[in-house]
Structures are given as structure tokens and as C-alpha cells.
Design a protein that fits this description.
single chain; 186 residues; alpha/beta; 60s Ribosomal Protein L30, Chain: A; 5 strands; elongated; disordered C terminus
């Protein structure tokens, strides 16, 4: 049975073994879009993904891990970081972890994070897109060709010959017109 007498003291780990625990139900509820929107929280599964999110500064509300991995160095570091940032650390049984996880093979670490929403009007394009003012290299042309071939016959027909010709002309022009004429001879 889990302790439900309020949150544990700072630096303490809450242990949950019951599938009926309200915290377990709340985390499972985040599988629904409606609940994620209302709570402004989301779930990340997997040790690497959770560690990357914590390292990137995402606000962690809950760090849930299997009791058997509590002593691993990375899990201990994540637990300390979660505590330092005001998050709750919860050690759970394998059964609880399997119930919370949405993957077929439950991960040993799950994080509950606050969402970061950026209004569409606040998003600005990069000042210098990666290929602006630079010729396309051979690899980029090959990738363009693979992408065009990947469209399939129906989509190419919908795109039409003119659209296809324009795509190829842009790729060829940016590559060859930016080189000195002597390079084109070889």
C-alpha cells in the first residue's frame, strides 16, 4: 500500500505499490489529450529521454522510477535534480510502472513535465536558413532526388511535370551556377 498522508518531506522518496493510488491514476490520465491540456503536463518515458529533458531545463513535476533502479547513478542524479527543482520523486513496483507506461515494454523511468507552449505569432524563422546563399552539395541533391522518388507515381502525377522540373531546376541551379565555369567542364 502507498503512503497517502500528503507529500513526502523534501528530499524523501514516495513509495507506491498500489495500482489504485490517486497519483498513479493521475499520471495514467495524462494519456488523454483533454487531461494534458487541462493540467498542462505531459509524460516522457525512458531514462535517456527524461535525462535529456531535465538537462534541457524542462520543469519536472514527478520523477517515477522502478524501485530496482534507485541506486543507479543517472537515476540518483535525476532524483536529486527533481528534488532540487521542487519535483516529487516516486519509486514504484514493476506492476505500477507497467500500468503507467504506454509502451509495450515499460521503461524503468518516467517523467511528468510541465508543457511549454509558444504562441504561433511568437515563432520566427531563422535569420539564416541552413542552405540560404550556399550551393546544394551532392548529398543534398541526392536527398532531393530520393525525396522526389519517394513521392510515388500518384503524387508525382498530382505534382505534375512542371512542378517536378521546377524542383530539379532549383537544386541543379543552386549547385552548378554557384561554381566557376571551369569546374563545370570536369
Amino acid at each position: 500500500m502507498a503512503r497517502t498522508d500528503g507529500p513526502p518531506a523534501p528530499g524523501k522518496v514516495l513509495h507506491i505499490t498500489s495500482l489504485a493510488n490517486p497519483i498513479v491514476k493521475e499520471i495514467r490520465g495524462l494519456a488523454l489529450s483533454k487531461n494534458r491540456k487541462e493540467s498542462r503536463l505531459f509524460v516522457a518515458e525512458g531514462l535517456k529521454l527524461v535525462a535529456d529533458a531535465v538537462d534541457a531545463g524542462w520543469t519536472i513535476r514527478r520523477l517515477v522510477h522502478a524501485a530496482k533502479v534507485a541506486d543507479e547513478a543517472l537515476v540518483a542524479r535525476l532524483s536529486a535534480t527533481a528534488h532540487a527543482r521542487g519535483g516529487q520523486v516516486i519509486a514504484v513496483s514493476e506492476a505500477v510502472l507497467a500500468k503507467i507506461a504506454r509502451r509495450d515494454n515499460p521503461q524503468t523511468v518516467i517523467g511528468v513535465f510541465e508543457q511549454r507552449l509558444t504562441p504561433a505569432g511568437a515563432i520566427r524563422p531563422a535569420a539564416d536558413p541552413p542552405t540560404e546563399g550556399r550551393p546544394m552539395g551532392r548529398d543534398q541533391l541526392e536527398q532531393l532526388w530520393v525525396s522526389i522518388r519517394g513521392l510515388g507515381a500518384r503524387r508525382l502525377a498530382a505534382l505534375g511535370f512542371v512542378g517536378l522540373a521546377v524542383l530539379l531546376a532549383i537544386g541543379v541551379a543552386t549547385t552548378y551556377l554557384s561554381r566557376p565555369p571551369t569546374e563545370l567542364l570536369y
